Amino acid sequence: MLIHVLFLLLGVGLLYGGGEALVEGASDLARRLGMSTLVIGLTVVAFGTSAPELAATLTATLDGSPELGLGNVVGSNIANIGLILGVSALLLPLHTTTRFILREIPFMVACSALLIPVVADDLISRTEGVLFSVGLIGYLAFMFFAGRNDATSHDPEEDLPSAGRAVAFVVLGAVLLVGGAKALVLGGVEIARALDVSERVIGLTMVAVGTSLPELASSLAAARRGESDMVLGNVVGSNVFNVLCILGVTATTMPMVVDGAGARTDLLAMLALSLLVPLLLWKGRNMGRREGAGLLILWAGYLAFLALRLPTVG
After folding, report:
1. At how many degrees (to 10) do helices 105-118 and 260-282 cross?
2. Which of 60, 213, 229, 242 has its CA 20 to 30 A from that of 51?
């Protein structure tokens, strides 16, 4: 038991250090490339923090458990909104622009809505995986083009960090986040098993939440620095990446046979939360502590719903 507690502590330390390094590197990279921190959050940070979901989903599918892979993506997207946005908004009121609400958030909503008909036939085919991957390329191209247009000018006498240093911090942060998430989940799972918690409960909670820990760590680091754009960009970008990149790469590698009917409730919950984000932001273009608390309550309610469903699951 002691070694597993040490894994928990190690995971927390790595997540903290990784979040700080990733956010610092991403902020420096945005300044160096002349891009907004919002777009860097939507792309670079989102991709870096989605690495655990990609590893978990691809591994689960190749091991013959594609439903676990799909559940990981959906559960992580729900946690990104309910847990991560909720906690971040409690720490720092999240301000944004009408342009972000009307231009970037619709990508997240569209990806959430798209999954419902895709899994209705109980299969995410290789063709659909390729289309998701093509959609990801289009999304990245649009984001980088938009980022160049949205960039704010900087003082020409400002001492900008080197691009190499910024990239090194981004890579270091991503590596520490992945390692921290793995250590924390390993310690937590073994402690849960020692306490006779069922494998099903562990999978529905620790796996989905565990792979979202990098997003949580980087978002909290950004919130402490007052980078509300990066918090919102990280969550929205991660949810887009989880669908287009993770399911795209996984289904292209191996078609995913899933239980479409069984996943419908979770998919609808993901879509409902995705639609709730622009509604919460629209009035005053900010998300404060009250909205953050509301998101946390909804996420806790979703977990409670899952717990109530467990006894009746096959």
Report:
1. 160
2. 229
